Amino acid sequence: MPLPGVAKEAGALSYLNEIGPWVVSFLALAQVWIIAAYKKWVRRGNIHIHESGVLEVGYNSFGPTIALTGTLRCIDYDVFVNKISLSVKRKKDSAQYSFDWYGFGNRTVSFGKGAEENKELEVASAFLVSPTKTFDFNILFVDMGFVSEHRPLVAPFIQKWNDHYQKRISEISLVQVRSADDLYRDITLKTNIYDEFFNTRDATEAFTILDRSFYWTQGEYELTFNVECSDPVKIFKKTWNFVLGEEDVKRLRLNAVIIMKALCGLPFMFNFSYPEYKNIN
Predict the structure, then answer these.
(1) What is the 3-state secondary structure (H, E, C) of the chain?
(2) What is the pLDDT of residues 29-66, one digit of tens each?
(3) Fewer CB in a 10 Å sphere around the end CB: N or C, the chain?
């Protein structure tokens, strides 16, 4: 007959032998959940935004634009970037504007210098940033609200130009020994016809719309770069100031005439302003 103390000890050991594997399994499973929860809610990926060069502020056939270059650096874990946008506030009157990303460009290309360079744009789309690979960006941002509002206003001008151009080509083909196709390829002729058209009422109305819609003015602006992510669900931001001087504004406003040439399919070269970033956070 076993002693009472020995019997109790043997019973406890037997019990531990029975539940021991279950405890180990539970702890192993709990460890997996704890690590997963830590990664998901505690140690999550973060984006650091590093600007480079200068801003490019424009007014062109896209409407008001801003182009930025820089690098996104990911800390700890991968981050999936859904979208990047800009929020702009004019300091003197608190007027606010929103810019959506439109396209990615080559890091060596300055946007909008001519028709050929616009072909370098790649459609902006979501991407992944990882700790082992930074994302270098050169992004063109467009005020899509401006585009939606003003596109219908300039559409009649484009139609009137096409009608005028086709009519003049038909007239010229009757008096010159050249085919219509040959005349259409003649850029000098097209420019001359445009110069005639520019003095019409239709062109004047289009210029008035583009000139009055121009909203870049002299002064200081606040610009916020918004990186919207889905994993983790978070918006990473960085804010700078920039200043447009009197000459910057004059140069950009001249683009109203150049926009009209671009819409008519003529060679063009836009003016831009290149203000410096002023860090505030």
Answers:
(1) CCCHHHHHHHHHHHHHHHHHHHHHHHHHHHHHHHHHHHHHHHCCCEEEEEEEEEEEEEEECCEEEEEEEEEEEEECCCEEEEEEEEEEEECCCCCEEEEEEEEECCCCCCCCCCHHHHCCCEECCCEEEECCECEEEEEEEECHHHHHHHHHHHHHHHHHHHHHHHHHHHHHHHHCCCCHHHHHCCHHHHHHHHHHHHCCHHHHHHHHHHHHHCCCCCEEEEEEEEEEEEECEEEEEEEEEEEECHHHHHHHHCHHHHHHHHHCCCCCCCCEECCCCEECC
(2) 555 554 454 455 445 678 999 999 899 999 999 999 99
(3) N
- Report the alpha-carbon distance of residue 218 to residue 92 in Å, rounded: 10
Could you check whether the bond before residue 232 is cis, i.e. omega within 30 degrees of 0? Answer: yes
Other CB atoms within 10 Å distance of the CB of residue 269 = 14
C-alpha triplet 262, 265, 271: angle, nearest 5°: 20
Sign of CA dihedral 172, 174, 175, 180: positive
Residue carrying structure tokens 């200081």: 220
The two tokens of residue 122 are 């790649």
Q: How far apart (Å, rounded) are the C-alpha atoms in residues 155 and 206?
A: 9
199 token code pair: 């003095």
Which tokens sit at 148? 């939606």
- CA 205 to CA 163: how far, in whole Å? 17
Amino acid letter at 156?
P
Q: What is the pTM of this model?
A: 0.80
